[in-house]
Amino acid sequence: MSANAPVLPPAKSASTPERILRRLDWQVIRHLDGLLQGDYRTLFYGDGIDFADLREYQLQDDIRHIDWNVTARMNTPYVRQYVEDREITAWFLLDLSPSMGFGPAERPKETVLIDLVTTLARLLTRNGNRVGAILYNNRLERTIPPRGGRNQVLRLTRELLRESEAPGQTTTDLNVLLHAGLNTFKRRSLVFVISDFISEPGWQRPLSLLNRRHELIGIRLWDPREVELPDAGVIVVEDAETGEQLFVDTSNPEFRRRFQAAAEQRDAELKENLRRAGADLFAMSTAEDLVGAIVRMAALRKKRRR
Hints:
- The protein has about 300 residues and is an alpha/beta fold.
- It has helices at about 10-15, 15-35, 40-45, 70-75, 110-125, 150-160, 175-185, 205-215, 255-275, 290-305; strands spanning about 1-5, 50-55, 80-85, 90-95, 130-135, 140-145, 190-195, 215-220, 235-240, 245-250, 280-285.
């Protein structure tokens, strides 16, 4: 559940794609160029895109890259090696369902998503790569075919700013979005899945399949008030997915404790589901600085691949 229906964020009510991109170029990308020294390999690339060769397994290797057929023939473990394409295709699978509107009025999860996607698309297209997206708001809304260049970044941002029609169903099912990606991506790609992962169950399998076939980066957006309620007295909360409203007394310590316990349980279940899917996920809060979040993700990806 989320507090009263969110006020329309500034990114959708006043900003234009050109203004958003100029702001991010100045406030985010310029700083990232300095902090990462222009090397985005640790953020965008894992073990590469195209198969290159085989070699004997070493202790630090990822067991997911073991070639079991060759291993059986040689009677010793062998792993596949990959090389990066000079140009890659990146896809964004984007959850724009109602729960993404939750958060501070000036920076709900949806606004963070817009800034994050615009930034990542800008970094990718500067190096000659192509970017595309599939947008979902409790139903598939539209697919933006991958292209390169600054105009493609502006197009992505413009589509994210566009008002959606009322969703066809009341609850989010990420299965629909993930299966759309599986059916659309014909060659190995860099795939970003960005969502709050508030969804009907069953999305683990398609996420696992995406992770096997592509270079997958999952990003979960969350707001601190989804985990810990402030002491604000009696308030009306609304389920962003169904519209159901309920009066709750946030001054009651026992209610706040149970709310936090339920949130922690959801978080633990999400982590377990991702572990089963074999997917790597990064969490980003609406309270977190975008520059710091991207640098942190790059550092974590580099550490996890060692």
